[in-house]
Automatic annotation (TrEMBL):
Main localisation: endoplasmic reticulum
Keywords: Endoplasmic reticulum, Lipid metabolism, Membrane, Signal, Transmembrane, Transmembrane helix
Origin organism lineage: Eukaryota, Metazoa, Ecdysozoa, Arthropoda, Chelicerata
UniProt topology in membrane: Multi-pass membrane protein
CDD domains xrefs: Seipin_BSCL2_like
UniProt entry tagged with the keyword Metal-binding: no
Protein's name according to its UniProt entry: Seipin
Organism this protein belongs to: Caerostris extrusa (Bark spider)
Length: 150
């Protein structure tokens, strides 16, 4: 019994979590005239909870990706390719590593859109299905947190 407790305790201390999931709520500049693009959507996300010092284990390689749910609006389609930027920042505010990746909504032909809409009319009307695309963008493949950066 004591051995099991010690094993669990050591596992909890030294083995990092398999995944960390945090929601991202993008902010927009509300002072823009209607129909104009004045600023890019952004968010500052703190990975470390209040009272804790680290979330990522030092020396451990992590894959960091963002999963986007984007409406298939004409404006989003006309926007075309866009860039996603992620800066990993230390507690002192220094940028440790930065990543920039392009992304784009998948092309769907007008014929495909008509067939899709006709086939899923009941689900679209009931709200159980939305006209959006979900896709993930890998920002870091092997991000390693440096223990001395903090």
């Amino acid at each position: 019994m004591v051995f099991c407790f010690q094993l669990f305790f050591l596992y909890y201390l030294y083995i990092p979590a398999v995944a960390h999931v945090k929601p991202v709520y993008l902010k927009y500049d509300a002072s823009c005239p209607k129909g104009k693009i004045c600023s890019f959507p952004y968010d500052n996300l703190t990975l470390v909870e209040k009272g804790h010092y680290e979330l990522l284990a030092g020396g451990q390689a992590y894959s960091i990706e963002i999963v986007l749910d984007m409406p298939e609006s004409e404006r989003n389609i006309d926007q075309g390719m866009f860039m996603i930027r992620l800066d990993m920042v230390s507690l002192q505010g220094d940028i440790l590593q930065s990543s920039r990746r392009p992304a784009i909504l998948h092309y769907r032909s007008p014929l495909f859109k008509v067939i899709y809409t006709l086939f899923f009319v009941p689900a679209l009307l009931l709200g159980s299905l939305e006209e959006k695309q979900s896709f993930s963008v890998s920002l870091f493949e092997k991000y390693v947190e440096d223990c001395v950066s903090f």
